[in-house]
Amino acid sequence: MKSSNREKAEGKIHQVKGKFKEAAGIIAGNRDLEAVGKEEKKEGKIQEKLGQIKKLMDK
User: Fold this and answer.
1) How far is CA 55 from the centre of its chain?
2) Residue 17's closest CA among 47, 39, 1, 46?
3) Disulfide-capable partner of 4 in 11, 17, 20, 54 (CB 3.0 to 4.6 Å)?
């Protein structure tokens, strides 16, 4: 797997994990867990975008 594809895939995984943590934090009333989820989701989006940039640079 190319590094750009791996980067995009890992970014998607972090976004999904972040969404689950955020939802669990909301349900449990745990603001810390909710914040961690939001942060992980943002990091996943950034990682996915880096993968897209790498793919463009490989062309």
Assistant:
1) 18
2) 39
3) 54
